[in-house]
Structure formats: C-alpha cells, structure tokens
Amino acid sequence: MPENQGVPHVPESRNVPGKRTRLSLVWIVPIVAAIAGVWVAVTRILAEGPKITIVFRSAEGLEAGKTKIHYNGVDVGTLTAIRLSDDHQRVIATAQMAPKTESFLVDDTKFWVVTPRIAGGTVSGLGTLLSGAYIGMEIGRAKEKRRDFVALTEPPVVTGDVPGRFFMLKTSTLGSLEYGTPIYFRRLQVGEVASYVLDDDGQGLTVKVFVKAPYDQYVTPNTRFWHASGIDLSLTASGLSVQTQSLVSILIGGIAFETPATGPVLPAAAADTVFTLYGDRKEAFQLPARDPQTFQLVFKQSVRGLTVGAPVEFHGIPIGHVVALDAQVDVKTFEFSVPVTVIVDATRFGVKVVELEPGADMATVRRKLLENFVAHGARAQLRSGSLLTGAMYVAIDFFPDASAVTMDWSRKPVEFPTVPGELEGIEASITKIVKKLDTVPIQAIGDDLKKAIVHLDETLVSARGTFDSATRLVAPDSTLDTELNTTLQELSRAARGLRVLADYLERHPEALVRGKPGEAK
Amino acid sequence: MSTPAATAMTLGLQGCHACGLVSRPVPGADEGSCPRCGDELSFRKSASLQRTWAFLIAAAVCYVPANVLPVLTTVTASGRDSDTILQGVVLLWSPTGWPLSLIVLVASIMIPSAKIVALVYLLVTVQRGSVESNVQRVRLYRMVELIGRWSMVDVFVDTFTAALVQLQPLMSVEPGPGLLFFAAVVVLTMLAVESFDPRLIWDAASGAEVQRA
Q1: Where are the alpha helices (DSSP H) in A296-376?
Q2: Which pLDDT does position B211 carry in this prediction?
Q3: B76: nearest CA partner in chain A
Q4: Considering only A479-483, B27-31, B157-161, which range has the smallest mean pLDDT?
Q5: Which of A10, A232, B83, B201 is 20 to 30 A from B183 (CA-CA)?
Q6: Phi first, then psi: what are they for A463, rounded to 5°?
Q7: Separation of alpha carbons B165 and B171, rounded Å
Q8: For residue A506, what is the enclosing H or E element?
Q9: What separation in angstroms does the CA of B196 have from each of A458, A484, B204?
C-alpha cells in the first residue's frame, strides 16, 4: 500500500550512541536477592544449635514447638517434635538446642519435666502454671558428647553444683518420706531426700539424702539418722514429754540426724556412706547389740502385759528385749507355762570380763560367770513397768533366797531360771497366811474371851469398892485428914519451942549449967 | 490476507510515549531520543526480556525465604510463637475458619507463585517465538499486571498488626524476617511485570506473518 509513504514528514530521532551495554545492570537484582537469601540461610544454619533426642515416659504437658528447655532459667532449646517410640512405650522428643550449647550435651547431662509440684514442704515450678511445663536441665561434668538422653522421671532435688554430700540410708519402710523431704540437724533444715530405691532383694529401701555444706561435716561415721516424722509422746517419771522436729516435719515427715555426744570424735563421713535409718530417736541412740545371747525364760504365770519387744532389764539397765512368747504344756503334770525368748546383750551395760586367761575360751568363761550369777541368786522376774498400761518387763535381779538350780547348757536356747513376779510372790504369802488363819480355833477363843470378860466385869466391880473406900479415906473432912492436921500442928509447935530453946541457949549458954537466972532467986 | 499487519516497528517508526510524536530512528540505530521532547525512544522496551528474567529470578530466589522464614512472631506470656505463612494457613484452617485460611493461601502463596510461573511462561514463549494463543497470553499478562499490587495486602496486614498489637508485657506481635522477603517478592514481580513488553508477544506473530506473506 502506497499510503505508507504518504506519512507526512516523519522526523528522524536523535541518536544516543553507546548508551547500552550487552549485559544489563539489572542482573544485580537477582544476585543481590540470591546473596540475601544465602546469607539468611547461612546465618540460620549457623544459629542452629545441635539437635538432641530425649526419651520421656509420658509427653504430658509437652508440646512440639512450644516446650522450652531451661537451664538455670535460661532458654537453651525448644522441642521440635514428639513421637512415640517403636514399642509405643515411651515418648521420643526431638529438641533443637540453642547455638553453642554443644558443651552442655555430655554423657551425664540430665533432663526432666518441670511441672508445678508440692514436695518437701515447698512448692516449686509455679511459673509453669502459666507457661506450661518446660524441661529442666542439669549439665553434667563428663567429657563424652551425647545427643540422645533419657529424661529423669522425677526432678532431681539437688541441681547444679550445690556443695554438700550424699549419704545412703537403709530403712525397712519408706514411711512418709518423699522426694525433697527435709533433713534436720538440731531442728535446722540442712538437706533433702534426693531419691529412694527399693533394694534388689525387696527387703528394704535405700534412701539417698543430700546434706548441704557446711552441715555435711557434722555427719560422721557414728552419726545416727532417724525418722523425725510426727510427734513422739512419752510419759515418763518426770512427766509428759513431747518430742517433735518442726511443724513441717509433723505434717510431711522428715529425717533428723545427730551424733552421740559420747563416743570418739570422728572425722566427717565420706560421701555415699551407708547409715541405718532408725524409727525414732530413742531407737537410734540405743547402743547397737554387739554380743547378743538368746535365753529362754519359763514363767509359770500369766504373761499378760508382756509383749514382743518388751525390755529386759538388769538392775534397771536395759540389756535386751523379748523376741518371742509361746505357751507350752507339760503332758505329765498338765502344767502350763510360758517360755519367753529374750535376746540379751551383756556388753550393753558395760559388763566386761577382766583378767581373761590367755587361751581361755570366751564361751566357757561366760558360762562359768553365768552359773556363778545364778548360784548367787540371779533370776528373771516379770515386773509391771507401768501401772497405767499394765505393760510388763523382764527384770533380772538377785534373789539370794531362791532355790538352787542347775543350768542346762545343752538346750538351745539356754533356759535361765525365773522367780515368780512380785505380785505373785505377795499373793503366795497372803495365801499362806490365810491358810494358817484357817486353822486358828476362833470360836473357842471367842467363848473363852466371853468368859474372861464376865470375870473381868466382877473384878472391876470389887475394884470400884476398893477405890471408893480409898477416896473416902482421903476426903477433906475425914478423920484421917483431921488427925493428920492436928499432928502436924503439934509438930510445928514442938519445932518452934525447940528453936526458942536454941536461941536462948546461944545467948545464955551458962543456963545449961546454972538454969534460968529468974529461977535461981 | 494479502498484506501483513503493519506495526510501527515494521514501518521503521517510533512513537514518543511522552509527547506522541512519531519519528524515524537514525539509520543503523534502534534507539534514540524524541526530536521534540527529548524522551527516550525505542521500538520495544530496552532489554525487556533480560530485565524481566533478572527480576523474575530475583523474585523466585526471595520466594524461598519468604515462605520458610516466619513472617509473624507473637510474644505472649506463655512464650514466643513464630509462624511462617504456611503455618498461618494451617493455623487458620478449621471447619469455620477455612474461608479465611483459603484467602491467605490464595493471596500469599498461590498468587505470588502463579505470577512467577505466568511470567516464566510468557518469557519462554516469547523467546521461542511462539505464535500460539497470543490473545490469551496478552490477557494473562494483563491479569498478572492487575493482580500484582494486591499481594502487598499481606505485608500491610502484617505491619499493621505488628504496630497495633503492642500490649507489653502481655502480648506483642513482631514482624519476622520472612515478611521482608515476601515484600521483596511482590515488588520484584511487579518490576518484572513492568519490564516485560507485551508487544513482544505479537512481534513473533507479525514476523511470522511477514515471513508467510
């Protein structure tokens, strides 16, 4: 079409030479974008700490992407995934740790779930009420790196590097002990129960306790630990005494320890030393039995009030306790008796055998000694320990009047001679007296007595007559009295005459020869 | 058709975008400046394909961190929560809230990726000199151009939320690093759309028609 050429006067544009290059500068944009992207990716990867797995028993309270791992309150990681183990028994949580936390993740690093809990009289983990559970962490000291951990079922009571020492306590029952149960020393809380585990044989428990420094130095090999739970009421001769540790320990239980004041001063016990956990303070401070001997005491009386565990005392010093009570019958005499088995430790009350001949058998010496004792009248006797409760105890004392016995050493356990109890003894004596009284002819005595009384009456009547006449004799108007008066007056007058004479003679001694002068005329 | 469709380029003419003057470039040169107003003149947008590719690649590169990195960090008393766009979609997805979730999914994930894919398609077809479905391709271009700016809504919502929800210490919202990349994706795709010259779609057709004629 020719109209194309018909465009009127199309001007030429001005040339701008050399302005364009082959490669546009616009390519800087994707390069910058790529650099930015790579930089972000690199920083992200660099900022990413190690990944670890923690095996939990339950994922309760845990949430992937939310639950944090805290160490001393610092957020050091986050759970990224939670899944069940292949056997569906456990929960495997994957956690993304913060950068530079590699050094924390060593062989003995511990993890546990922190939830609100009340233990040992303290409330902990309250912050988790709002924020949900978190995972606590304790950094271990081992050198080996580790990435897979098994969480503790209970949070450790002692975390970090709290100075102090752990000790092991052996006990038969846990009582009211719990994780975090306080340990008292002179009623000062100095530690806590860290853990407890049932012994492999199921016969007891081992309680691990932590005693903080500097109190751990007061735990020596001689230290006694006991259950300080509850109130120990005791009624003694000095009155009612109440023993407690603290109000908290009454409520939640506790363990107290003390080192006997007597006894050698020992250095502080090493960590993990095993102690026995006693039931109470009294038990803890009982000297341990060093040389226990079993004896059998046969009582031919009721042992009501005597229980297993009742003390055996020698002169008031506890030397053992009752371990068994039975009843037996002699088929020939049909006599019932109660054999009481006791364990006695003579060393308890400090009986030491001095001058033991070299080479002499200890058992023989002891046997001779005991026979000597028995020969001197040592006997076991049931005595009432408390009038209130009627509790009985076994007393070993000397009864020189006791009939002689020989000890049968072939029996196991050896029978130790007994004497009837105090009450029984009194009873027996009274019975004897009553029997004797029975034989007295009270009727005849009564008749005689009556007769005698009649005689006595007559005698008394005649006696009264005698007394009456006697009274009359000495009455003021009686003849005797008048005569006596006259006689006395006469006597008085005679005495006066005598005195006049004596006076005259003193003045006129010559009158004795010449007579009165008036008379001479 | 006896004669091929005449375009300014086939006639060797350039129109000024600023003043409308039609001029003829200096022989041997494709570009120049308008003799009347001095505006730049060219037959087609200069280095259109190259620039579009560059922006597109940059956008594609930014698209990855935009989706991987969190766009929003919610700090509450119970802890910090960082969510990526996709996590947001999952979070919103519920029997009652699914329309909202769908909006986020479409606006924030599907549209940016669709834009990139559409532009790549346009670029590839132009470079291969395809003559097929030119009208559809131009329509696609127009759609991409129109829709592009709306993707910024996401960025705005995010920034608004972050600015408004600052109830320290109870709760606060912070924009995440992914948001920056997401904004970059939107801007870069818009730039890519801008640098693409839709006339190129027709050039092949004209050329083909010229060749056929």
Answers
A1: 362-375
A2: 46
A3: A131
A4: B27-31
A5: B201
A6: -65, -40
A7: 7
A8: helix A479-507
A9: 168, 183, 15
**Which residues is A256 bridged to in the sheet?**
A184, A226
Give the CA count within 13 Å in the CB-facing half-sphere of B56: 24
The CATH code of the domain at B47-212 is 1.20.140
- Structure-token pair, residue B46: 């200069």
Other C-beta atoms closer than 10 Å to the C-beta of A511 total 14
**Rounded mean pLDDT, B124-133:** 83
Tokens at residue B177, please? 């690093």
Residue whose entry in the numeric block shows the structure tokens 């009359």: A472
Q: Which residues of A touch B11 (CB under 8 A)?
A: 4
The residue ranges of every structural domain in chain B are 1-43, 47-212
Evaluate whether A393 touches A312 at the Cβ level (below 8 Å). Answer: yes
Per residue in A449-460, pLDDT tens?
A: 999 999 999 999
pLDDT at A342: 87
Q: Pull the structure tokens for residue A344.
A: 């006695």
Domain limits, chain A:
47-150, 164-285, 292-424, 479-514
pLDDT digits (tens, 9 = 90+) for A362-402: 677 777 778 888 888 888 888 877 767 777 888 888 888 87
Residue B213: pLDDT over 60 = no
With contact defined as beta carbons under 8 Å apart, do B30 and B138 qualify?
no
* CA closest to A131 among chain B residues: B78
Query: Cα torsion for A217, A223, A227, A232, to the nearest 10°?
Result: -110
pLDDT in tens, B25-82: 777 666 777 888 877 777 777 778 888 888 899 999 888 888 888 888 887 766 677 7
Interchain proximity A26–B61, CB inside 8 Å? no
Question: What is the C-alpha separation between A67 and A74, in angstroms, rounded?
Answer: 13
Question: Which amino acid is it at A382?
Answer: L
CA quadruple A33, A34, A39, A44: dihedral positive or negative?
positive
Alpha-carbon distance B7 to nearest alpha carbon in chain A (angstroms): 11
User: Which of B24, B36, B54 comes nearest A26 by C-beta?
Assistant: B54
Q: Nearest by CB to B33, which of A10, A16, A130?
A: A16
Tokens at residue A497, please?
Answer: 């005459």
- A366, amino acid identity: R
Residues of chain B with Cβ-Cβ distance to A19 below 8 Å are 31
Per-residue 3-state assignment (H helix, E strand, C coil) for A101-150: CHHHCECCCEEEEECCEEECCEEECCCHHHHCCEEEEECCCCCCECCEEE
Which residue of chain A is at minimal alpha-carbon distance from B7? A4
Q: Tally the C-alpha atoms within 13 A of residue A99's C-alpha that lie toward its C-beta.
A: 6
Q: Tell me: pLDDT of A487 over 90.
A: yes
If DSSP codes are grouped into helix, strand and coil, which group holds residue A473?
Answer: helix
Type of residue numbered B23:
S
Question: How would you class A153 by CB atoms within 10 Å of its CB: exposed for 0-12, middle for 13-18, buried for 19 or more?
Answer: exposed
